[in-house]
Amino acid sequence: MGRRLVIAATVFLLVQAGGAAAATKPSGSWAAPEIRTVMAAGLMGTTDAATFRPADRLTAQTLEDLVFGLKLVVFPPDPTPQPPPLSPAPNPSVPPANPTLTDPTQTTPTQTTPTQTAPTQTTPAPATPPPAPVPAPAPVPVPLPVPVPLPSAPRKLAQPDASVTMATLDLRLVQALGLGKAANEFVAGARAAGLKVPGRFGTEVVARLLGLRTNHPAEQDSLELLPGDPATRAEAAYSAAQVLRFSGWEVAGVQSLADSFALPQLSSWQTKILDTAVSRIGMPYIWGGTSDGPETEFGVSSRGGYDCSGFVWRVYKLQSYPGGEALASVLRGRTTFQMSGEVPASKRIHFADLQPADVIFFGDNGPRSQPAQVGHMGIYIGNGWFIHSSEYGVALATMDGWYRREFAWARRPLAEAGLPG
Length: 421
Prior knowledge:
By secondary structure, the protein is α+β, with helices and mostly antiparallel strands.
C-alpha cells in the first residue's frame, strides 16, 4: 500500500455509497464471467447460472468432478489407435541364409554331368579365410508405452459433502495440470537453502504463478479467504476458468521455472527473516492489512492478510526476533513511499548488489523514481526471486519483465539494525 492511503477517506465514502446502492438491487456474483465460462465447458454440474450457488461451500465430490472434467478439456484422450509394435530390424552381422535351402518355392532340376578327367595340376593351398564374425544377439523388441486411459467417470468419494479448503483446491488443480513435480521442486529448493516452509508452499507458489488466484476489490475484502478457510464454488469457478483460458505455454513455463529454482545459502539472520516471509505464502491481499487474523481497515472487515507494505511491516516490524529487537525500529513509516524514502540516496542498494532479506521497491520511473512514485515493494529471497503480497496474495515472483523495469532501489534492514547479513 502506497499512495492509496492518501485517498483512503475518499474511497471509504465511495464504499459506503456503493454498499447502499447495492442494497437496492440484486447483487450478482463477483465471479459471474468465470461461472459462465465454466458452465459453457460443461463443468460444475449445471448450465443455469440461477442454480449455480456461488457462495456455497465447495464440496469434495464437486472438486473431484471438476478436476476430472478439467483433465478431459486440458488433456483430451487421443482417439487415434496406437500402432502395433514394430518387428525388430534384421541383424546386419548375420549373413543371409542360402536361398536354395530355405526357399521352398525354388526347385533345382536334376542334371547329368558327363565325367571328365582333368589333367593333373598342382594347385596352391587356398588362403585361410578370416573367421566368420560372431553374430550379435538379436535385439529384444521394446513394446511401445501403452497410454494410461483416463477413467470413464470421476471416482466417488466416501465423504462427498466434506468441505474443501482453499489450499486443497489449489493442490488438486496443480496436480490435475501435471505440476506436482514443479511444486516439489519449489519446496526442495527452499529447503536446500535452509528455509522452513509450510506444507502448502509448493502448490501455492505454482497456483499463483499460474494466476489461479485473484484479489477482490478493497470494498469486498470480506470475501478474501485464508489458505485454511473452506473454499466456495465461486472461487473454484474462477480458478477453473483461468485454466480453460490458458494459451498453451503456462504449464510448461511454470515447470521450467521450477526446474531451475534454487536459492543461495543464507546467513542465520537472513534465514530468520525469510522463514517468517515464506510462512505466509498463500495469504490473501488485503488493502491496508498487516494481520494474520481478523481486522477491519477503512470500514471493511477481513479474515486477515496484507497489502504489499503491510506484508513487509508484518515480517520486519511486528514479528518478534529474539536478539533482533532493533529491527522493530528500523522501519518507521507504514507506506511504500515512506519506507522507500527513509534511506538516503547514498545508502540505496542497486539491483546488482541485492542480497536475500533486502526490502525492494518498485517505482514508476525505475531507479529514477522519487519516493512518492514508489507504489510496490517486497522482500528479495535470492537468485532473481522475491516474495510479496500482490494481486495473487502472498506469492513468489521473478525479477524480470515489469519488476525489472520498475525496480527502483532496495534497503537492507538487517544492516540498519546492526545485525549480520
